[in-house]
Design a protein that fits this description.
Blueprint: H1 21-30, H2 48-52, H3 68-80, H4 108-111, E1 139-140, E2 143-144, H5 155-182, E3 195-197, H6 234-239, H7 243-250, H8 276-282, E4 295-297, E5 305-307, E6 310-315, E7 327-333, E8 338-343, E9 349-355, E10 357-363, E11 369-375, E12 379-382, E13 387-392, E14 398-404, E15 412-413, H9 414-419, H10 423-430, H11 434-439, E16 447-448
Antiparallel strand pairs: 1-2, 3-4, 5-6, 6-7, 7-14, 8-13, 8-15, 8-16, 9-12, 9-14, 10-11, 10-13
């Protein structure tokens, strides 16, 4: 075994040292125990060393090195060095290797050459890095789409790569949310049936019904402890602040607040708000519009897949950029149709039934299952990752929302899973006939017809 350290600059041959087997053996021992014992034996046979080891170490009791450092060191090494003509299946001569990257830990193995030269590493906005599903990096044909293919050599290093990608994207989410608050970029918009809006946590907002019938809407929070009783109301604050303080703050006479209601105004009758364009002009910020709009037309989205039985439309942070903690799907099932057998790997599911009648069965493993009937206005809940299906038991179209505390929507189709499993393995489990195997669908069908 040869341990090779490569830290060279572009067009410079790397320096490397071949270490003796004795040194390598001691290094390996230090990564599984506390290192050499006080008698300098390679293997650790002193149980007390585990308890007496301390940061910094000494010659008699050197610092223990955990195995994770191996993979972190590999990740750092890949960032410092890169050979675009190498292959994981061929032997490389270290003396002939040229380094095509900067000898700095600048994460170019994550960011590549940037969104202009390597746009496939980035989302269409050129800011976020692309992510895969199910806690993995983006893959095409099984190959990782990352800045350095060597980081896909083993699962631990590729997960480090994915952690850096996710950290970058979450930092952007935080910066965008802070930017929305700090840059004072409001948005006024009209919404219709099927639309979504997003309220950043802690920022003021208002809703006003339009037309003779007003509007009915559903609020979904990413925190189960959310309550209207911890909502900041403008009337509540002003009514409980001394008039002289208000006068000093706003630069107007204290009498300006003499008609402020003393009762909280949650939902109350107001006047017609007038043309939308006038309201938008009134709140225009010199900094422009928000980075990501707060309103999203979910009902107008093309379905991820449409069948004779219905369709599924999905909104998450990949298309509704402002919504970074809630993902949702609008499911339409025609009479007799069924939302297929499936489960969600990334989050619990919270449902709201908009119209129609439904029957859902949830399978909880070990032979346990429950079946429930639903109608418009009902709420359903499925813990992650329990299998379930929903049938339209009425004679009208069934429509319901699937809502998740996650930045992305994900589901696993039972049908597709079996279709992408070797047929012999499926048959060995189910003892099925060949006709069953032939009917399995490799393309997902979220809603199956009657």
């Amino acid at each position: 075994m040869t341990l090779c350290f490569i830290f060279g600059s572009k067009d410079t041959k790397p320096r490397h040292n071949q270490l003796s087997l004795a040194i390598l053996a001691k290094l390996a021992a230090s990564m599984v125990g506390d290192g050499p014992d006080e008698d300098n034996s390679v293997l650790d046979d002193d149980l007390e060393d585990e308890n007496s080891s301390r940061l910094g170490g000494n010659n008699a009791n050197p610092l223990r090195i955990t195995s994770g450092y191996t993979y972190l060191g590999q990740f750092i090494d890949h960032d410092l060095t890169f050979d675009p003509i190498s292959s994981l299946t061929t032997q490389i001569d270290p003396d002939a290797l040229l380094d095509f990257r900067t000898p700095r830990f600048d994460l170019d193995c994550v960011y590549g050459d940037g969104p202009d030269d390597q746009p496939y590493l980035y989302d269409p906005d050129g800011e976020k890095l692309t992510e895969g599903v199910g806690g993995d990096v983006l893959r095409l044909g099984g190959r990782a789409v990352i800045g350095d293919p060597r980081n896909d050599e083993n699962r631990i290093v590729v997960q480090l790569q994915h952690d850096f990608i996710r950290f970058h994207n979450r930092v952007l989410d935080v910066l965008h949310r802070q930017g929305i608050a700090d840059d004072r970029r409001p948005q006024v918009a009209d919404v219709k049936t099927g639309d979504l809006w997003y309220f950043p946590p802690g920022l003021p907002h208002s809703l006003q019904g339009l037309g003779p019938d007003g509007g009915e809407f559903l609020l979904a929070f990413d925190n189960g402890k959310a309550s209207e009783f911890n909502t900041l109301l403008v009337t509540d604050w002003i009514a409980h602040t001394p008039p002289e303080v208000l006068a000093a703050n706003f630069g107007v006479p204290a009498e300006s607040f003499k008609n402020t209601p003393v009762d909280n105004l949650w939902i109350f009758q107001g006047g017609d708000p007038g043309p939308l364009a006038d309201a938008q002009r009134a709140v225009t910020s010199p900094l422009g519009a928000p980075t990501h709009p707060f309103v999203f037309s979910m009902g107008s989205l093309p379905p991820v897949r449409k069948t004779a039985g219905g369709m599924v439309q999905i909104a998450d942070s990949r298309n509704f950029k402002a919504s970074t903690t809630v993902a949702a799907a609008l499911v339409t099932v025609k009479p007799g149709g069924m939302r297929e057998l499936h489960w969600h790997p990334n989050a619990d599911e919270w449902q709201y039934y908009i119209s129609g009648q439904a029957r859902m069965t949830v399978f909880g493993a070990s032979g346990t299952a429950n079946t429930f009937d639903y109608q418009a206005g009902d709420v359903g809940y499925i813990p992650r990752p329990m299998g379930h299906y929903i049938e339209n038991t009425g004679n009208t179209t069934l429509r319901f929302l699937e809502i998740f505390k996650s930045d992305y929507y994900a589901d696993v189709s039972f049908d597709q899973w079996l279709a992408l499993t070797p047929p012999e393995l499926v048959t060995a489990h189910l003892h099925n006939d060949p006709q069953f195997i032939a009917k399995l669908r490799k393309d997902k069908a979220p809603v199956v017809p009657a």
